TrEMBL record:
One of its GO terms (cellular component) is TAT protein transport complex. One of its GO terms (molecular function) is protein transmembrane transporter activity. The gene is tatB. It is found in: Cell membrane; Membrane. It comes from Profundibacter amoris. The keyword Protein transport applies. This is Sec-independent protein translocase protein TatB. Residues 119-194 are annotated as: Disordered. Part of the twin-arginine translocation (Tat) system that transports large folded proteins containing a characteristic twin-arginine motif in their signal peptide across membranes. Together with TatC, TatB is part of a receptor directly interacting with Tat signal peptides. TatB may form an oligomeric binding site that transiently accommodates folded Tat precursor proteins before their translocation. Belongs to the TatB family. It is a single-pass membrane protein.
Length: 194
């Protein structure tokens, strides 16, 4: 009830022995026992009185109805519970599971072999038809008519307006060449005359 362990009870007993004393300790435990007995009897009487009141008010019937409404069967969870139980108990190494796996594997292998055989025959037929077409014995039927290509669009130059004939170039008189600036002459020193 109070989550008291043996070590806590031992500590309480030692403290009670020291505080109360060895002479009065048995009397105290007797009184404590009577008190707890009376408290438990009162709790039992109270609980039975409450149960009787609930029965007379019909609370028990409502509680039973509520339990029935929220049962697994009413909610459809019983089937889910069965499946979960089967899944928990399923063992992939049981003989039935191994036999089923072997059957599935054999069926897949047979299906794959049939598909390979069918593809091989189709390839042989196609090879024979192409060989005959190459020899010229039979003309191969065209698979579909080739789409007619749209006429090529003329290039941008051809689509542009025709240019007017070029004017003959006339020789323009060249402007006379500008005289180049003469190199600066060194200044004559005061002593030199030119």
């Amino acid at each position: 009830m109070f989550d008291i362990g043996w070590t806590e009870l031992l500590v309480i007993g030692i403290v009670a022995l020291i505080v109360v004393g060895p002479k009065d300790l048995p009397g105290m435990f007797r009184t404590l026992g009577r008190f707890t007995g009376k408290a438990k009897a009162m709790a039992r009487d109270f609980q039975s009185a409450m149960n009787e009141a609930a029965d007379s008010a019909g609370v028990k019937d409502v509680a039973d109805d509520l339990k029935n409404v929220t049962s697994k069967k009413a909610l459809g969870l019983d089937a889910l519970d069965e499946v979960a139980t089967k899944f928990e108990n399923w063992d992939p190494m049981t003989p039935e599971a191994q036999a089923k796996a072997a059957e599935t594997k054999a069926a897949e292998k047979a299906k794959k072999a049939a598909l390979v055989k069918e593809r091989t025959e189709a390839a042989k037929k196609m090879h024979a038809a192409t060989a005959k077409a190459k020899d010229g014995k039979t003309a191969a039927k065209p698979a579909a008519k080739p789409k007619a290509k749209a006429p090529a669009k003329p290039k941008a130059k051809a689509a542009a307006k025709p240019k007017a004939p070029a004017k003959p170039k006339t020789a323009k008189p060249k402007a006379p060449a500008k005289p180049k600036a003469k190199a600066a002459k060194p200044k004559a020193k005061s002593g030199d005359k030119a």
